[in-house]
Design brief:
By secondary structure, the protein is mainly beta. It has 2 domains: 171 residues, no CATH class; 81 residues, Immunoglobulins (Immunoglobulin-like), CATH 2.60.40.10. The chain has 3 helices and 18 strands. The longest helix is centred in the middle third of the chain and has 8 residues. The protein is elongated, with a radius of gyration of 25 Å.
Length: 277
């Protein structure tokens, strides 16, 4: 008999994926989107999408993203109502989400490419076909839905009152690409590379600290700390996965700068030495 802690199904709880957090990216139909599992699951996906002009749309409501596959069928029957076969008459894949952050990207998504963060116009007509990428995370695991061709087909009501954020509720429909595919879904564990520092600009500064320096390198994904000989920076801001701006603490002489991020800690090298003078 199995123990009380053993499941008869012999399943693996780790295979249960929960959409804890995620986001939507949108860009022109001609944008270079991820076309492989490796490209979709890599730790620098967000930076790669932005570089391809596929922009983040900001925060999504707590309802997340809803995927709907709508399939209509027709039965072909013979004399006597004998069903010969069933064929598909219609097939549609839609995604519904609600953007709760007002920025230029979300405004363009809802009102059209002429919109700005400060001015929008409501017009008739369909919005353009775009490339969209949906990213859903559960801890270190990720699900990425790449939609090469999609279009906003419905825009929900906007409620403007004091108990909720003004949001952009929209539904997009996915269309077939040149391979007849409407959406590509990739799942896997994100493999983070260890951070590495390749340059400090400037590499010297006053011993009283307070100097803003630019740290250049790789693997700066979700950095958790920047230290100077073990002393935390007064402040730091991750500009991208390859650049951090940090404010130096007080120090003395040559010190090693270290960045800790999702992939671990950077290794001391000659390029990571900062000198307090």
């Amino acid at each position: 008999m199995p123990s009380r802690r053993q499941h008869m199904s012999d399943g693996n709880a780790r295979n249960v994926f929960v959409g804890v957090v995620g986001g939507v990216f949108s860009g022109p139909e001609t944008a270079a989107y991820p076309q492989s599992h490796g490209a979709a699951i890599k730790s620098t996906l967000a930076q790669d999408l932005i570089a391809a002009n596929i922009r983040p749309l900001g925060h999504i409501s707590t309802d997340g993203v809803t995927q709907t596959i709508d399939q209509s069928t027709t039965k072909l029957t013979a004399w006597g109502n004998y069903v010969l076969r069933t064929i598909e008459s219609e097939h549609a894949v839609t995604y519904q989400y609600k953007l709760v952050e007002h920025n230029e990207n979300s405004a363009k998504e809802f009102y059209g490419d002429d919109a700005t963060v400060t001015e929008q116009q409501i017009k008739s007509g369909m919005l353009p076909i775009k490339t969209r990428v949906l990213v859903v995370r559960d801890g270190n695991r990720r699900m990425v839905v790449v939609i090469p061709r999609s279009q906003v087909i419905a825009r929900g009501d906007q409620q403007m009152y004091g108990e909720d954020a003004v949001s952009y509720d929209m539904t997009i429909e996915a269309y077939e690409d040149e391979h007849g595919v409407k959406a590509y879904i990739y799942r896997g564990d994100v493999e983070y590379v260890a951070p590495a520092i390749t340059d400090l600009d400037p590499a010297t500064g006053p011993d009283v600290g307070g100097e803003a320096i630019r740290i250049v390198g790789t693997g700066f994904v979700t950095p958790t700390s920047v230290t100077f000989a073990g002393v935390p920076a007064l402040a730091f801001n991750a500009i991208s996965s390859t650049e951090i701006v940090a404010v130096t603490p007080p120090g003395d002489g040559a010190t090693q700068v270290q960045v800790r991020a999702a992939g671990g800690a950077s290794t001391p090298t000659a390029d990571s030495i900062y000198t307090f003078a």
